[in-house]
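Researcher: Let's do a round of design. I'm pasting the structure tokens now; please hold your answer until I've finished.
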């Protein structure tokens, strides 16, 4: 209520960049925390993107599903004691359009470094075109099903985006089923290659005390 009484300029304000720039190359850190016999490796990839749009959202969602399915299959086959990997790619508009991808995998302490290498190798393989048509179709189906359900909260979020983000493609969201239909295997491979670079990320490995 108080903020509403302050005078405003009605001008367009620009966000101030208060975050930390993504370091060049690969940055790693070791952390000792907790107890037990399980370790975890976490990775963060962050790259600029051309725009926050329904198409880029769809590409990020399908890319996450593809990599998650690949890592779950390969890491479990190679390291039977590893829990299910987790990966998510999200788009952010402040201070500029950015796609961030977060990966987390747990496993035995003595094999966590090899697990981390496996994660990067699989992302590299997908980025270089090693994604089969069947593998893509299997990962795509649940995303397609999710896109068929919309709730009020999601709709309000998209209306807010239309106001806050210049040139946001709200029609692309309204017809998002058509947007998703325009996403194919080649586009997802290109998205991974461009936005999840294996030569620029932050990696933190946590092992028990």
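Researcher: That's everything. Go ahead.
Model: Designed sequence:
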């Amino acid at each position: 209520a108080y903020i509403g009484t302050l005078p405003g300029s009605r001008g367009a304000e620009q966000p101030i960049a208060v975050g930390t720039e993504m370091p060049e190359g690969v940055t790693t850190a070791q952390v000792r925390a907790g107890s037990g016999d399980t370790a975890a490796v976490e990775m963060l990839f962050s790259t600029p993107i051309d725009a926050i749009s329904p198409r880029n959202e769809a590409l990020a969602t399908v890319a996450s599903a593809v990599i998650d399915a690949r890592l779950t299959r390969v890491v479990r086959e190679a390291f039977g004691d590893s829990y299910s990997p987790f990966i998510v790619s999200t788009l952010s508009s402040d201070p500029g359009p950015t796609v961030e991808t977060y990966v987390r995998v747990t496993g035995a302490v003595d094999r966590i470094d090899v697990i981390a290498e496996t994660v990067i190798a699989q992302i590299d393989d997908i980025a270089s075109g090693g994604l089969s048509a069947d593998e893509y179709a299997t990962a795509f189906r649940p995303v397609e099903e999710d896109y068929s359900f919309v709730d009020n909260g999601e709709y309000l979020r998209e209306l807010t985006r239309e106001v806050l983000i210049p040139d946001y493609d709200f029609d692309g969201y309204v017809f998002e089923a058509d947007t998703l239909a325009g996403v194919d295997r080649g586009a997802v491979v290109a998205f991974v290659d461009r936005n999840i670079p294996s030569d620029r990320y932050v990696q933190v490995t946590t092992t028990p005390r």
